[in-house]
Amino acid sequence: MSTSDDLVGGNVDPWLSVSEPYQPDPPGHESDLTHSVQIRDVRKAFGSFHVLTGLNLNFVDNAVTTILGPSGTGKSVLLKHIVGLLEPDHGEVVVFGQNIWNVSERERQEIRKRFGVLFQDGALFGSMNIYDNVAFPLRKHTDKSESEIRKIVMARLEEVGLTRAVNKAPGEVSGGMKKRAGFARALVLNPSVVMFDEPDSGLDPVRTSLLNDLILKLHAEHGGTYILVTHDIRTARKVSDYVGVVWKGKLIHYGETEEAFNSDLPFVRQFLSGDSVGPLGMD
Ligand SMILES: Nc1ncnc2c1ncn2[C@@H]1O[C@H](COP(=O)(O)OP(=O)(O)OP(=O)(O)O)[C@@H](O)[C@H]1O
């Protein structure tokens, strides 16, 4: 277990030194939880810039965990480590019980197939219509027939309310529709872990709320470990079972959602209330 001093790399930070220590598992849940995704003391630097500085986090299976933190604090870098797109300089990323950098590239690719990822803009192929975009992972990674693929794709598009947009190009649909199409595509291989990188970016508050409802609905129907990165505090409060707060490359708080919103940790309190007064400034 880290102490508040470890949280700032050994420097005593007056804002953090009053905090409760970081708990690797939510209190009271240590023995009955399993963790498909474990981040163990992960450090990552780009040149001399240290982005992740010893991040530990066991994501709770079949729960929705949101990662919050200021811009540039390493949240997307963390997601890229989880899917094996970035290799840590130090520490381990253990996914489904395997250190993903102790396996072959081929095995890593197999592990990746168990992830669904929704990028900010849906990351759709502009040259394919919505149907083909959603069908793409099935055509690439399975040997299902076109009629089987059609059943799956249409069921997913129905769930996200896009059956009438199947023939449209991504450029012809709204930002919210692109995200829903990206969501359908992320779910098409029945992933065990679904990750969302700022699913609400660029959406108005109503579309954000509708997308959040959809996340909750599909999680309730299909289960899975959902990991979200967002700046939207309302999204975090609405969809999350657990909240992790990252600052200066470390996890400084992790716990059930209401616990995070009632935290006494000055940084967490400031960040979740959007207050201008506190340890977080403009730098
Ligand atoms: N491949 C890379 N090469 C060099 N620097 C990188 C690379 N990837 C990320 N960074 C840097 O790492 C830092 C953290 O980036 P990251 O995108 O993870 O932040 P974030 O917390 O997701 O921010 P935001 O909330 O603004 O999206 C940034 O300063 C970014 O410029």
Automatic annotation (TrEMBL):
Task: Cite the entry's keywords alphabetically.
Answer: ATP-binding, Nucleotide-binding, Transport
Q: Which organism is it from?
A: Protofrankia coriariae
Name this polypeptide is given: ABC transporter
Q: Using the UniProt annotation, give all residue ranges assigned to the region (Disordered).
A: 1-32
| ABC transporter domain mapped to chain residues | 37-273
InterPro entries for the chain: AAA+_ATPase (IPR003593), ABC_transporter-like_ATP-bd (IPR003439), ABC_transporter-like_CS (IPR017871), P-loop_NTPase (IPR027417)
